[in-house]
Amino acid sequence: MTEKLQKGISEELIDKISSDNNEPEWMRRYRHAAYNAFRVFKVPSWAPLHKSEYSLDFDEFFYYIRASDKTARNWDDVPQEIRDKYEKLGIPQGEREFLAGVGAQYESRMIYHSLREELTQMGVIFEDMNTAVNKYPELVEKYFGSVVPYANNKFSALNGAIWNGGSFAYIPKGVYVDMPLHNFFQMHVASQGQFEHTIIVAEDESNVEFLEGCVAPIYSEKSIHAGVVEIYVGKRAKVKFSTMQNWSKNVLNLVTKKALIEEDGRIDWVDGNVGSGLTMKYPALMLSGKGASGRILSLAFVGDKQEIDAGGKAIHLAPFTRADIESKAIIKSGGISTYRGDVFVSEKANNSLTQVNCVSMFLDEGGVSKTIPNIKIKNDNSTVNHESSILKISQEQLLYLQSRGLNEQSARSMIISGFTDSFTKELPMEYAVEFDRLVNMEVSDGVA
Q1: Contact, 195 vs 164, CB < 8 A?
Q2: Contact 243, 212 (CB under 8 A)
Q3: Percentage of residues in the chain with pLDDT exceeding 90?
Q4: Cβ–Cβ < 8 Å for 277, 249
Q5: pTM for the structure as a whole
Q6: Where is 369: in which H helix or E strand?
Q7: Tens of pLDDT along 141-187?
Q8: Which residues contact 42 (CB under 8 A, 6 or more apart)?
Q9: CB under 8 Å to 239, separation ≥6 — which residues?
Q10: What's the whole-number mean pLDDT along residues 397-417?
């Protein structure tokens, strides 16, 4: 049975969350410090949240909704109603066939979490965050807020105060995880907030792939998602983090994601956004070690009553670092896409390189595409390239494909698939097929 407390956030609610989760004192103090910061922070003046259709009244959300008192380790122990929803999404089947571990969150809590036994024997930790805080308190305390401090912005502070759910993944030195770990998040209550907190730690010379999926039904009331993802990439370690976001249009997706990359470490950030009324998301690469590198590859679809304000951040703090940022958007009439990027090159970042490429494809008239780069270079021996371009499906392309036997809709789908190919080929096959299906449904008005 779902427990839904009254709307609004307060110190009493924070204490209840901490008490219900039996948290150590350091976490309770962290929550209260974050709440104090949240009350002080303002929404940035440039943020789309100042538009009337996105205006936020923080007292109008449910911040703590529990669908289960405990995290199950077996699907049979998950409440039947919830299990049915995940079966339709294919999550249990995915775990059986191609996933090393699964975390499934429903409302404010992880309701299921598992890891293959052979990885546990290798020292890999993959726990829901609430369990990890109690089971590995010293390890979690070391990394919690170390890459994304609560003082990063208003929504990271909100997350720090009332976070619930998410995962803690720890990959020991030299361990190669040959199958992906997976988090999946669902919201099913109107006017709610979801605030998971996920930390991935890849020690030196380790390797891991992490998948993240999100979904919610459509309601007339707004809901808010303000998750935080912190990723630590050790020396010569490799991490791949992929997100497929299919929130409904009533969801405001306001997340904070950042990776710290040590010497010769590497992260690939693959980010897909199909749903939500508004998304504000700026994955950040903090390239702190010599030879550290990272790539952010994002693809968004925006149609009527949808806006994405997103991009990538590259912070070069050491020599021979590299960042590649590729941002693509498919825009239908009424959709608004803004690339907002930050590049910072420090005095110590000799011979660093940043490549930024933004491309928007318009499907018809009436959409908007904007590019707002912010570049600060304090080193003469570094290179920053920024390119932006706009494409449109032409009648000539459609006529050519139709002359080869395709109808107009199939021709459009083929052109769009070519545009998204650099993104989908980075996803596991099951997710690439699903993402193509979602985009084509949106293009053909098959989804509200």
Answers
A1: yes
A2: yes
A3: 50
A4: yes
A5: 0.88
A6: strand 368-377
A7: 999 999 999 999 999 999 999 998 888 999 999 999 988 887 776 66
A8: 154
A9: 200, 202, 207, 208, 209, 210, 231, 233, 259, 265, 266, 267, 268
A10: 83
How would DSSP label each residue in 205-227? Answer: T-EEEEEEEEE----SS-EEE--
Cα(377)–Cα(344) distance, integer angstroms: 6
Indicate whether 58 pLDDT > 60. Answer: yes
Cα dist from 281 to 215, 254, 308, whole Å: 17, 6, 8
Q: Which is it for strands 313-316 and 336-345: parallel, antiparallel or unpaired?
A: parallel
HSE (CB half, 13 Å, CA atoms) of 131? Answer: 20
Per-residue DSSP letter, 136: S
Region 218-223: mean pLDDT is 67
Type of residue numbered 329: A
State the pLDDT confidence band at 217, using cuts at 50, 70 and 90.
low
- Judge whether 306 and 321 are in contact, CB under 8 Å: no
Angle at 296 between CA 211 and CA 96, to 5 degrees: 15
3-state SS, 139-185, equals HHHHHCCCCCCHHHCHHHHHHHHHCCCCEEEEECCCCECCCCEEEEE
pLDDT at 320 over 90: yes
**Single-letter residue type at 74:** N
Strand partners, 386: 356
Question: Which residues on neighbouring strands pair with residue 338, listed in sequence order?
Answer: 309, 370
Residues 6 or more apart in contact with residue 308 via CB below 8 angstroms: 273, 276, 278, 279, 281, 300, 302, 329, 336, 337, 338
CA 393 to chain centre: 29
Q: Is residue 366 within 8 Å of residue 337, measured between CB atoms?
A: no
- Distance in angstroms (rounded) separating the CA atoms of residues 183 and 207: 18
